[in-house]
Design brief:
Elements (H helix, E strand, L loop, with lengths): L2 H8 L6 E6 L3 E3 L3 E9 L5 E18 L2 E13 L4 E3 L4 E9 L13 E9 L5 E10 L2 H12 L2 E10 L10 E9 L8 E11 L3 E10 L3 H9 L4 E9 L6 H12 L1
Parallel strand pairs: 2-9
Antiparallel strand pairs: 1-3, 3-7, 4-5, 4-6, 4-8, 8-9, 10-11, 11-12, 12-13, 13-14
Amino acid sequence: MSFFNKMLASIGVGSAKVDTKLEKSSYVAGELLRGEVEIYGGNVDQQIDAIYLTLYTTYIKEVDDKKYTSKAPIEKFKVSEPFTISANETKIIPFSFHLPVDLPITVGRTRVWVATELDIRSGVDSTDKDYIEIRPSKIASRIFDEIQSLGFRLREAECEQASYKYRSKYPFIQEFEFVPVGGAFRGRLDELEIVFVSQSESSVDVIMQVDRKARGLVGFLAEALDADETHVRMTISQSDLHNLGEILRQTIARYA
């Protein structure tokens, strides 16, 4: 192969390309994700040091009182060891890995995608991006169902920059904002906000912000000072699912 073609490949012209094909496009948080990475050789043989798959999401970040959408890596997976891709060769590398159970749910403006990167020695890395739908885990899904059965409707869901108080392994939290449209809490609450602080297969740590409706002058003063808001932290496990609706009703009623 000519020196000219090698030089072009080193700057990304005629170099290896990558295309990741997932088994499907919709997943439950914590589910096994399977697929194949297809690598297409360019005009020259190239050394691939590694193939990485990285899960990303979007979140709202605030800097100097200005908000903008940023991206955050969630987890990175290495799916190959070093190998050589010959000119015009096609290689197929299967992979599988479990999605994190605390992966953000793709509702509202939140997006999640798998980014594929070929780490090419002496060349320009080749990338690919595949968006996926993420549905809530079993426990989170039950919480949403029970909240809805209590007369609440989801008004907004968004990943926001986490304060140091709530930050864990991610720089963001996903907040779900509900409003009462029926049932016992209509007229008593302005809204109910829910954040899943941490999740596992067997339990979920939840923070609920109960925002009471202002009543009279004292109520309006409390609302102005945010004194009408109560933050409740609780852990919900698999063993709670049989009476989860009552647990949530009593907890919310205690602060409504």
